[in-house]
TrEMBL record, chain A:
Quaternary structure annotation from Swiss-Prot or TrEMBL: UreD, UreF and UreG form a complex that acts as a GTP-hydrolysis-dependent molecular chaperone, activating the urease apoprotein by helping to assemble the nickel containing metallocenter of UreC. The UreE protein probably delivers the nickel.
Assigned protein family: Belongs to the UreF family.
Highest taxon listed in the record's lineage: Bacteria
Primary localisation category: cytoplasm
Task of the protein: Required for maturation of urease via the functional incorporation of the urease nickel metallocenter.
Name under which the protein is recorded: Urease accessory protein UreF
An MF annotation (GO) of this entry: nickel cation binding
Organism: Sphaerisporangium melleum
InterPro entries: UreF (IPR002639), UreF_sf (IPR038277)
Upper classification of the organism: Bacteria, Bacillati, Actinomycetota, Actinomycetes, Streptosporangiales
Cell location: Cytoplasm
From TrEMBL, chain B:
Protein's name in the database: Urease accessory protein UreG
Major localization class: cytoplasm
Region span, Disordered: 1-20
Compartmental location: Cytoplasm
Residue ranges constituting the CobW/HypB/UreG nucleotide-binding domain according to the UniProt record: 22-191
Cited Pfam families: cobW
Annotated keywords: Chaperone, Cytoplasm, GTP-binding, Nickel insertion, Nucleotide-binding
Any one Gene Ontology BP term: urea catabolic process
Family: Belongs to the SIMIBI class G3E GTPase family. UreG subfamily.
Species assigned in the record: Sphaerisporangium melleum
Molecular function via GO: GTP binding; GTPase activity; nickel cation binding
Lineage: Bacteria, Bacillati, Actinomycetota, Actinomycetes, Streptosporangiales
Cellular component annotations (GO), alphabetically ordered: cytoplasm
Protein's UniProt keywords contain Cytoplasm: yes
From TrEMBL, chain C:
Organism: Sphaerisporangium melleum
Gene name of this polypeptide: ureD
Protein name in the entry: Urease accessory protein UreD
UniProt cross-references to InterPro entries, sorted A to Z: UreD (IPR002669)
GO molecular function terms noted in the UniProt entry: nickel cation binding
Role this protein plays: Required for maturation of urease via the functional incorporation of the urease nickel metallocenter.
Pfam families xref list: UreD
Chaperone is among the record's keywords: yes
Amino acid sequence: MDAALLLLADSRLPAGGHAHSGGAEQAVRAGAITGTEDLARFLRGRLATTGLVTAALSAAACHLAVLLGSHGEDGGRPWTEPSAAAAAESETDARAAWRELDAEADARTASPAQRYAARTQGRLLLRSGRRIWPSPVLDTLAQAVPDGVHHPIALGAVAAAAGCSRHDAAMAAAYTSITGPATAAVRLLGLDPVVVHRVLAGLVPDLSGVARTATAAASGTVEAGVAARGTAAEAVLRIAWEELPAHAAPALDLLAEQHLRTEVRLFVS
Amino acid sequence: MSANHDDRHHSPDPHGRALRLGVGGPVGSGKTALVAALCRTLGPVLRLGVVTNDIYTTEDADFLRRAGVLDPERIVAVQTGCCPHTAIRDDIAANIDAVETLEERFGPLDLVIVESGGDNLTATFSRGLADQQIFVLDVSGGDKVPRKGGPGVTSADLLVINKTDLAKHVGADLTVMSRDAAAVRDGKPVLFTSIREVPEVYSVAEWVHGVVQSWAHTQAHHPHGPVVPTANA
Amino acid sequence: MGVTTGGTTEVTPVQAIGAAPVRGGTGRRALFARAAVATALSGGRTVLDTLRSAPPLTLRQTGPGTVHLVATAAGPLGGDDLGLSIDVAPGTVLTIASVASTLVLPGPEESAESVLVVDARVGAGATLVYAPEPTVLAAGCAHRMVVRLTLEEGASVSWREEIVFGRHGERPGRCHARFDTTAGGVPLLRQEFVVGDPAVDASPAVYGDARCVGTTLLAGPAFGTPPGEAVISAGCAVLPLAGQGTLVSALAPDAPTLRARLTWGETQILPA
C-alpha cells in the first residue's frame, strides 16, 4: 500500500464527497434504513454490487493511466514501467481510450441520477486531484470527458498520479463506496458513530475481498488487451473492458431516482 | 481551441475571473434578503452570478429566482450534505465547480456571490473560495453577539448588522453593538441595515461595488480587459 | 424450458440436432444442448431460416415470425449446458416467447451448475422481441445465465428478463446472471444479478424485501423514444440509458406484480 492511499481515501480530501450519501438519505426517508442493522445490510449489499463495479473501474483506470502516462514526456514518474511501448501513440488515442472506459461505466449505470452523481463527483475529484498531484495524464482525462468523467475512473487516474497501485485504487473506491453512506446515516439518524464504525470494521474482510477481485478483473482485462496488441496505440484501444464486473443494484437505482425527485434533501445523491 | 477552453476541470487563472464574494451568517439573519437586495441594486451595473448553499434542497435559490432579481439561470444551488460549513470551508470543491460553471456559461462576470447555508458564529469562508466575505448578524440575537466575537464577526471583510428596525423591540443597543464590533474587528467596516425598510441596501452595495472595482484593478493580465463599468452604483 | 414437478422427464427430441446427454445421475441426465433460430428476408417477409431445437430447449413456430420455447424436459438442472443462438437478419422481425415459466432445479450432483447462454444478434433495421416467462430459482439450484445481445445500426429490441427468488415460500438457490448489450459496437447496457448470496439478498441497497427482479430493455426505432428523464413508480424505474435505449427495472414481492410493474414501465416509452 502506498501512503498516498490514505490521503486519497480520507473523507477530508476536498473533492466534494461529503455531500453524497450514496442512496442512504433516500433509504432513511423510505424507512429502509432505521438503525445500524439495516445500515450494515445496506452497506454490505452496496459493497458487493456498486462497490465491486467501481473498484474494478478504478483499478482499470489506474492501470490505463499508468499505460498512457509512461509514454513520452513524463519519464520521471515513479510509476513508469517497461510497458511504455503499450501507451497510446498520440493524445487523440489517449482521449479515445479514456472515453471508451467512461462508456463502460455508463453502460454499468442504468440510472440517470446515478450517472449524474458519478460525473459530478468525478469532475470535482479530478479538479482537486490535478491541483494536488499535477500530471499530464489527468489533463488528458479532463479534456477527454470535459463534463466530468465517472467518479471511479477519476479516482483510479488520480490514484495513479499520486503513485498508488491498482490495488490501492480499487481499495479507495471500495472504501468510499461504504464510508460515505455510513457517515450520512450517522448524521441523518443520529446513530452512535462508534457503533457505525464497528459495522465498518466488520466489513473489512469484504473490503479486502472486493479490492482483490476488482484488481484481478482489471489486471486480467488489461493484460489480455496488451498481449493481443498490434501497435501500442491499438493495444490500449483494444482492451476488453466488457470483462469488468457489472453487478447491478436495482434498489439503489430506484433510491437514486426517488431522491432526485424529493423536495427536501440534504445530500446531492 | 485552447486546451482549457473545452475543459471544465481547469481552474481559471485567478487574474482572469470575477470577484467571489462570500455571504455568511447565522440562520435567519437575512443573508438571502441581502443577496436579493444586492442583485437588485447592482444587477444593472455589474454582471452577476449567485451560488446558494442550502441546508435543505434549493429553497434559497428558489426564493431568489422568484424574487426576479436575476436571470434564474444565473442562480445555482449546491447541496451540502448536512454540513453547510464544510462546503464553504473544508471541502469547497462543489462550490468552486458551481462558480466556474457560472463563469463558463455566462462569463465574463464581475461578481459571483456565494451564499452559505445558515450556520453558527464560527463558520467562515475558505480563502480558496471567497476573495471577500460579508458576515451577516441581526440585532434580534441580542447586542452581546459582536462582543462574543467568533471568526465570522472578527475576520469578515464586512460585518453587516441587519434588522435595525427591531432593535427597540428586542432591547438591543446599536451603539453597544457598534462599539463592540469595532473593538474586535481591527478597523474593518461594520454597516447597519434594515433590509425590510431600505431594500436597496445602498451602503452595502456601495462597499461591494468598491471591492469589485479594486479587484478588477488588480487584474492586470485580465484576458477580457477591465470588466467593471465605471458607472456609479 | 418449462415448469416441472421434478423427477424424471422423458426426453423426446423434436428436431433435436446437436443435443446429447453428457453425464449420468439420479434424475434425468445432464444435457448438452445448442438450439438456434435464425430469420431471413424472403420476398419482403420474415421467414425462419433455421429452427433447431435441443431439449430441454425446444422451439416451435407459433405464428409468422413468432417462436415459442416449450417444455420437453425438466430444468435446467444442475449440470445442464444449454445454449440458444438467435440471429435476426437485417429487416426481419422475430418474437420469442415461452409457454410457461422456467424452473431451475438442482442437479443430481449438488455442486454442478446449470448454464444457459443466449447469444442474440439483431441485424440492421431488424426487430427482436424476447419475452419469455419468468425464470424461477428453486431451492438448491445453481444457475448461470449469460445473455449477449448485439444490435447493429438501426436494430430494435425489446428484451424482458424476470427472475423469481424461489417458488412460493421457498428460499432460492444460487443464480448469477449477466446481460451484455452492445449497439453499433458500443456498450449500451452491462448488468449482473447475483441471487442467493446472503450479503446481497436482503440488502436494502440491492433487492430490499423483493422476491423477484426484472428488467425490460427497449432500444431502437421500433420501440419509440426514451422519455426525457427517468420515470418512477412503486418498485419500478424507467431509466433512459446513456446510449440510445431505455431500461425498465422493477422489484416486486411476486411474479404477477413484477409483470404488472414492467408492463407499466414499458408503456412509459413514447410511441414510435
